[in-house]
Design a protein that fits this description.
disordered N terminus, elongated, 4-stranded antiparallel sheet
Length: about 325
């Protein structure tokens, strides 16, 4: 370093070199401080923010779930599946509040699950059970009449909100507990899918409502709720994740491919082909996108080549970078 100082011709050159050396020294110290001290704290902060956001979304979903029951289903004397359905039956038979029975039954199931499934059993599920019980407690105090007097409409609206609430909670790793826990426990010892176990339990719960109401139409309303709820949950969990596979035939394939990569951020595969009728060699673009992205892609194609031929197909699942993570 000092040798270099003697070789310099002017004070400004000396000053410039010293400045660079000092900046280099302090930059290294700053970088070291960042990686050792700040970066771990920032990562912890980011994780905490994500977890907080997740719990807020779960809470919102559980509120919708409880609201569906207390504002539409319970006041209309409609019973659906799950532990909330069991709590509703107990409420109609004895007058015992749904909030208490929901908390007690789920508490017993969680205690059993901790013994059988281990401590890894979700903390978010325990949180969901407590929060849902509180929502049931307060909402049932304030809502005593169905918000929709017509029973079938109350069934449909209640089922949609019920499914939406459960779907939102599940999308963030939460759960309403209940029959999910029973299904996991049985699945550990018997080779029966959890979905089938939940279906059997829900059918049993809804069918039990006949013992209280002595009316077959109550069973019909209950099964309508079960069907709509399942559909809405599936729609929320997979609707935004549905993917499409596009084959694009165009003379302006290079422009279209460039536009898709730059505007949508999706990769494009180029396939060489030969038309059997014309015997001409062509180029096909193959791209996989999310369903909500399709209007953007179609607009780009139309703007570049209005005569382009596009084949669209739905795909069952897409795994890898930019899509779903492979889970084994």
């Amino acid at each position: 370093m000092f040798k270099n100082l003697f070789l310099l011709q002017s004070d400004s050159q000396v000053f410039s070199l010293v400045k660079k050396l000092l900046l280099k020294k302090y930059n290294e110290q700053i970088e070291l401080f960042f990686y050792i001290y700040l970066q771990p704290k920032i990562q912890i902060y980011i994780i905490m923010i994500k977890e907080l956001k997740s719990y807020l979304v779960i809470t919102f979903g559980l509120f919708i779930f409880a609201f569906a029951w207390t504002a539409f289903l319970i006041p209309s004397h409609i019973t659906a599946g799950g532990i909330s359905g069991v709590g509703t039956l107990i409420y109609f038979a004895t007058g015992f509040p749904v909030a208490y029975s929901y908390l007690i039954i789920n508490g017993i199931l969680v205690a059993i699950a901790l013994q059988i499934l281990g401590r890894g059993f979700g903390a978010k599920t325990v949180y969901a059970i407590v929060i849902t019980s509180l929502f049931f407690y307060f909402l049932q105090k304030f809502i005593t009449e169905p918000l929709v007097p017509e029973k079938f409409m109350a069934t449909v609206v209640g089922a949609i909100l019920n499914g939406a609430g459960v779907g939102v909670a599940i999308s963030q790793g939460g759960s309403t507990g209940g029959t999910d826990i029973i299904a996991l426990i049985i699945n550990k010892y018997k080779n029966i899918s959890p979905g089938r176990i939940i279906l059997y339990i829900d059918v049993l719960i809804i069918s039990s409502s006949y013992l209280i109401f002595k009316e077959l139409n109550q069973l019909v309303y209950g099964f309508v709720v079960m069907g709509i709820t399942a559909y809405v949950i599936d729609l929320i969990l997979t609707g935004s994740k549905q993917s499409m596979q596009l084959f694009i035939f165009s003379q302006k394939h290079e422009e279209i491919a460039e536009a898709i990569v730059n505007s949508v951020g999706r990769g494009v595969s180029v396939i060489d082909s030969k038309g059997w009728y014309t015997k001409e060699h062509n180029t096909i673009l193959m791209v996989v996108i999310r369903k909500p992205e399709s209007p953007i892609v179609f607009k780009l194609i139309k703007e570049i080549d209005n005569d382009a031929f596009v084949s669209v197909g739905s795909v069952m699942g897409v795994y890898g970078h930019g899509f779903e993570e492979i889970k084994v």
